[in-house]
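Batch job 17 of 40 flagged for manual review because the log was empty.
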Amino acid sequence: MNPVVVTSAGKVRGTIQDRVARFRGIPFAAPPEGPLRFRPPAPPPGWSATRDALAFGAAPPQLAPAPGAPAMWQPGDGLDCLTVNVWTPDPGAAGLPVMVWIYGGLWKHGSASMPHYDATALADSGVVVVTFNYRVGFEGFAHLPGVPDNRGLRDQVAALEWVRDNIAAFGGDAGNVTVFGQSAGAASAVLLMAAPAARGLFRRAIAQSIPAGARTRAEAEKVTATLAQAVGVPGTWDALAGLPPEALLAVQDAPLRGREDGFTAFGPVIDGDLVTGQPWTALEAGAGHEVDLICGFTHDEYRGQGPVPAPTGGLDLGLVAEAIGLGPQAADAYRRSHPGLTDTDLFTVMLSDALVRMPTTRAARAQARAGGRTWLYDFTWQSPALGAAHGVDLPFTFGNPNSRYATRFLGSPPPPGFTDLSRQLRAAWTSFACTGDPGWPRFTLDRQTTRLWNLPPTDTAFPLEASRQVWEPGTTA
């Protein structure tokens, strides 16, 4: 018999598969269309009859993430995208720990309906898992005069408020919520830790590969002006809200003119409200210190993130160092601190540090310095195709080795060690969600213990101190 649950907006009917009840496509906010376009999320309309929650809702407007990859959104899908999905081992239970997933995707891609985010294996471990959509790209993160910034983050807060108000009906404990996410989702988790609007909505966070990337208001205004010019309308709410999403998607990369512009024109905007700076800056000041934090990175973060062109005429690490915000002398510092590596290998090390490994390290150190309970890890397991690339940890997190996404890293069939390492990683994440203990020693400034996720998992001193000294010379360990 299909389970039925009563939510604040009405009854929903799910399905049971592999001992786990699944409810998909439940609205947590009204469709952001018409007068609600580019506005903060509004409450969803209720319903009287039991609503089938059998299929995912539409993805937020976006292009395909890569040539040849399936597009998650089509113009006919519209804007009714703000929905949640729940996997629960027992809707009739009470007090189960809750894990809420935030996807990544360069702030311009992503959907909770992507097959590699199927949470059946996680929920079968005894936790309630929630995934949800939030607006990405221009819809979620463009700056518009007179409209609150960071609508994508505001969607995330609204989803967490839905969890607070409804998750008990699915067997979960609203007082024991762990937010977890990867890449842009990891940055979101850390930003929400420090955001007053999200205070009290979760008690723990797992941030897998935290990137830098918060934009100043001036930078965001420039992006909007460029895109408005590209579509030939004024950069105002009424002019841009009158355009279909596909018109804005067609020009979303217009501001990316040079290597220094990165992979995306969008990201959190420093609005002084939800976002006060880069993800780690508010943690430095003690905001969010009451939230337990696991954070970490894959060892070869640059791999799998897309090409960053080498300078014309060859690989000049001095120019690379300048492009990532260091002085040209940093190239020699990298050579001295990483003896035996070729310049090609050092290029990967430098970009991995710049894009994720140092931002994640800063977040861990900031939280530890503020007195927050902190754990750090380095995912070093090497995939057959891309090594310990950005995103390789996702199939292990969800226990899904056979999705299109997973086979890009793992091949088919997956390597023999996948099942064991995935089981251990998921056990650590669910133990943390349940008890606050992932199973390895905390990271403190005095004792910088770091978990190395490999077979077997081991614990060691912080493995990137040589890189950290290049980025923060003269600071103590």
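Reviewer: the log was empty due to a logging misconfiguration, but the result itself is present. Residues 307-313 have pLDDT under 50 and may be disordered. Unflagging and moving on to job 18.
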